[in-house]
Amino acid sequence: MKSLLVLALSFILACPARAHSDLEEHGSPRERAPDNWTKFEWPKMKAVLFGQYAPTEEELELIDRAVPKKPTAKPAKERRILVFYRCLYPHTAITTACETFERIGASTGAYTAVISDNPADFTPENLKSFDAVLLNNTVNYDKIIGEKGKQAILDFVRSGKGLIGIHAASDAAKDWKEGAEMMGGIFGGHPWLPNGNWAFQLETPDHPVNAGFKGKGFWLRDEIYSYRSGTFSRSRSRVLVGLDLSKDENRNSPELHKDQRNVAQNAKEHPVSWIHQFGGGRVFYTSFGHRNTVYWNAPVLQHMLDGIQFALGDLEGSTTPSADLEDVEIAPAPEK
Questions:
Q1: What is the pTM of this model?
Q2: Judging by beta carbons within 10 Å of its beta carbon (0-12, 13-18, 19+), is residue 228 exposed, middle or buried?
Q3: What is the pLDDT of residues 211-234, one digit of tens each?
Q4: Residue 305, Cα to own-chain centre: how many angstroms?
Q5: Are the C-beta atoms of 221 and 208 separated by less than 8 Å?
Q6: How many other C-beta atoms are found inside a 10 Å radius of the C-beta of residue 219?
Q7: Which DSSP letter does residue 262 get?
């Protein structure tokens, strides 16, 4: 009888741990979205994002545990970031990301986040009050902010301010050459689908924006983009994180997009996070950020904070383009 009680108690104690692990890996289950909701007008689309896809209380607890608790670099002054999320195709993690970037700023004191879906915020007068713009999964944001907004953000970054692009921020500027150059790469596809567990390597693992990974490559579930030919250049950008293409999973996994497997199989190298100068300003982009689970992954959040502080000008880090480096140290992903 005693052994049965012990077994029962062990099972009860193990269940919450298993449930918590499942929550961390997959997030809270949600009902199916309304049919064709990705084609709704923005107000209805936004209502689904902030209703059905808002982070749950359990997910907010995971985020609070994962966010950095102090700035990596002391801010030179009080910093304000415009976090813009309006888009023409909605990613379900948008509201989770908005919450996360707001909480990173509040937790660390590195910046204050102003969350916005208003394209009218992209005027020279309004942008003067910000130190950086963060584009949160903003598919075709250039079509939303219009010609005057496009010129305003170009002038803003060139003048010495910062730009942070998260995941689908690169799924824009397809017919806007200057915008493509500013971001550094434009969406071409997503061979590496979000349920796949992909291997990542660090380039120059001791770079300050890579510090959160502690010098080691890693594995992560997320959707990773390919880029349109001619839009990404190692002669312009400093690659920080890339896919570790020495790992067979990155080339032959069943989780690869069935129609884009050739991209993965033929790739010689593939950037995921990078930085560069654009005029007098600094740009940080990462393909991470499709899955909501990424926003409670502590090393990735540290990487994002460091990218943000780099873009703000508070964290120093070399922007020497990768092509100009004589020798690049690589920290590969560990074996599974």
A1: 0.94
A2: middle
A3: 999 999 999 999 999 999 999 999
A4: 11
A5: no
A6: 16
A7: H
